[in-house]
Design brief:
The protein is built from five helices and no strands. It has 84 residues and is mainly alpha-helical.
Length: 84
């Protein structure tokens, strides 16, 4: 609970629904996954970082934008796996 409150106050990406401070990583992941979906490139991405650093938020924002693109939406197959 304390982590969530601090994250909202300092990172702003949970409170505003926007990502803060990781714009480069966002653009890179978006382009990588877009090329994979549209052009069939065989790409993999490993997103690493400490717990609570925004890995899931980053991926969810990228997937949301991808599903809003017509050319991607037609070819994208989204599968969520949870190792918990």
């Amino acid at each position: 609970m304390v982590q969530k409150i601090l994250r909202e106050r300092f990172c702003h990406h949970y409170a505003t629904g926007k990502l803060f401070g990781i714009e480069h990583q966002y653009r890179h992941l978006l382009e990588l996954l877009k090329r994979t979906a549209v052009h069939g490139e065989s790409n993999s991405a490993l997103i690493i970082g400490p717990r609570g650093s925004g890995k899931t938020a980053l991926l969810n924002h990228v997937l949301k934008e991808l599903t809003e693109m017509k050319q991607v939406r037609e070819t994208l197959l989204e599968v969520h796996l949870n190792g918990k």
